[in-house]
Design goal:
Blueprint: E1 19-22, E2 25-28, E3 30-32, H1 34-37, E4 43-49, E5 64-72, E6 75-79, E7 82-85, E8 91-94, E9 100-104, E10 110-118
Antiparallel strand pairs: 1-2, 3-4, 4-10, 5-8, 5-10, 6-7, 6-9
The protein binds zinc ion (ZN).
Zinc ion binds next to loops.
Length: 146
Amino acid sequence: MSNYSVFDAGQWQNLDQHVFEYGPIKAPGKVFLSEKIDSSGCEVSLNRLEAGQSYPFLHRHNRHEEVFIAVSGRGDMQVDGEIIPFNEGTVIRIAPEGVRSIRSGAEEPLCFLCIQATAGSLSSRFIGDGETVPGEVRWDGPVMAG
Ligand code: ZN
């Protein structure tokens, strides 16, 4: 068994080829990754909201905090009724209890990552969980199909 998983979602501009369906919800441009890469500690989604769109619902979480990272475009996040500008480079963490929604700006699509993890589960910050391993870095191994 391999120590890694790979999924190629394609280019952000073509993200609407992925459609997330959950009950009555049908969201083109949204792809959840935990199933695709077998992640066990966090859920990650790639998201593209075309210009002038909004999630048509408010939601909160039971145990997961969410970190939203705007990759490109402009928009707004709404948390507990407050509007927070959400533009390329903005990172917003929302506690599980925060009631939230998101919209893109009128002019261009908003592309963003959303990372969900159990609130309070982070065991160390920065590189505290890593350790160096003896050996030389080499790049002459087999190239895997990706
Ligand atoms: Zn959420």
